[in-house]
Design goal:
Blueprint (H helix, E strand, L loop, with lengths): L33 H4 L8 H39 L3 H18 L1 H36 L2 H15 L1
């Protein structure tokens, strides 16, 4: 509790409320005194505010109960996974494998794969054609009179 007497624990179902789970009781006879601690919004009576605080406390208590139930179920799930030999690393591997399978079966992946395959085939054909042309040109060049003259000069240097 803080010095004003309000519960400030964020996990508490009574956070922000007085020690009785509602508002501080500051009036005679123990009646709840909402207006004594908080300023009421316009058009809201003290009784309506007390009812809203009561509803708020109930809802926050239900939230706390649900958190506890969820925590218990998460622990049970972890125990079952441990017994089945499922570790977080195994789960990650399974998720990645399933994700990769999903990617491979997707239409976008298939279209991309087909496009890359066609591009590869065209590139291979282009290089093959270029190789044939270069080979032919080199053969033509080798048989040319200029190359023969150059070949003779190089041959003479070796011999001489």
């Amino acid at each position: 509790m803080d010095p004003v007497g309000q519960d400030i624990n964020l996990n508490s179902p009574n956070k922000g409320l007085g020690p009785a789970g509602g508002v501080d009781s500051l009036t005679e006879g123990g009646a709840m005194g909402v207006a004594a601690v908080n300023t009421l919004p316009p058009g809201l009576t003290e009784e309506e505010a007390e009812e809203l605080y009561s509803d708020l406390a109930k809802v926050e208590e239900e939230i706390n109960t649900l958190r506890q139930v969820l925590l218990a179920k998460e622990k049970h799930s972890a125990d079952l996974k441990r017994k089945l030999g499922l570790s977080p690393l195994n789960e990650l591997k399974q998720n990645l494998t399933k994700g990769w399978q999903d990617v491979q079966t997707s239409n976008a992946y298939k279209k991309t794969s087909e496009t890359l395959s066609v591009a590869g085939q065209k590139t291979t054909a282009a290089f093959s054609t270029m190789g044939t042309v270069l080979s032919r040109k080199l053969g033509d060049m080798r048989n040319s009179p200029t190359f023969k003259s150059f070949e003779d000069k190089v041959g003479n240097i070796k011999l001489g």
